[in-house]
Write a structure and sequence with these properties.
This protein is an alpha/beta fold and 215 residues long. Helix content is 44%, strand content 16%. The protein has one domain. Strands 1, 2, 3, 4, 5, 6, 7 and 8 form an 8-stranded parallel beta sheet that branches. The longest helix has 21 residues.
């Protein structure tokens, strides 16, 4: 998704969620500062790994059941919070989309094994960016939900899962398969407001349906 198409959706999300664009953009500045010594890449670099089929792994409670029933195919892209569960199931993602929420250790492990990590900046994760973003040893792509720039990319999307879908669609993947996605039943997470999470997943569903309809 090009930014010209994404920006109106982004503005709607800001209004609906009560978020501040300036905070998102400040988080980008922090992300750039703490990753100066990281192995930075572009989304184009990562796209070279994309096959005709991509499996995007979400972190819904149904993930293990989905993996058993549907399996995976092609390039595997995983939401950051689902990486540990994917690895435990014997699935090794090629790419991870993360805002650094959830269990970070499996994400760092996967990065050290060469997986591309798309690290996302938004207004609510500046502290995590400061403490964690510089720890990734493997190839890193910086992303924003606001205006992209030379070293920070935006392919559309709001949560880790739908950003992965938007990325795959942007680069023309023919078949995007979803496992571990449930927009009505999010994983419980300590300190997370279930009502807010449901609202985020509602946006994720709208974005994914829009992208898959036009891909």
């Amino acid at each position: 998704m090009d930014f010209s198409e994404w920006e109106p959706i982004y503005e709607q999300i800001l209004a609906d969620m009560g978020y501040d664009r300036a905070s998102d953009e400040n988080a980008v500045r922090v992300l750039k500062a703490v990753t100066l010594n990281s192995d930075l890449h572009s989304g184009d670099d990562a796209s070279e790994l994309l096959e005709d089929t991509v499996t995007v792994i979400g972190n819904a409670p149904c993930l293990e059941d989905d993996l058993q029933k549907k399996g995976v195919a092609g390039t595997i892209i995983c939401a950051g919070s689902a990486v540990g569960r994917a690895l435990a199931a014997g699935v090794v993602p090629d790419m991870v989309f993360t805002d650094l929420d959830g269990d970070l250790q499996p994400q760092l492990e996967l990065s050290s094994r060469g997986a591309f990590t798309f690290i996302h900046a938004h207004g609510d994760n500046t502290d995590l960016i400061t403490s964690c973003a510089g720890q990734f040893e493997g190839p890193v792509v910086l992303t924003t939900q606001s205006t992209p720039e030379y070293t920070v990319f935006n392919y559309g999307g709001f949560t880790d899962g739908d950003r992965a879908v938007c990325f795959a669609a942007h680069f023309g993947v023919k078949e995007i398969r979803l496992v571990g996605f449930d927009y009505q039943h999010p994983m419980e997470k300590a300190g997370s407001d279930p009502a807010v999470k449901l609202k985020k997943l509602s946006w994720a569903e709208k974005i994914i349906l829009k992208v898959l309809k036009h891909s």
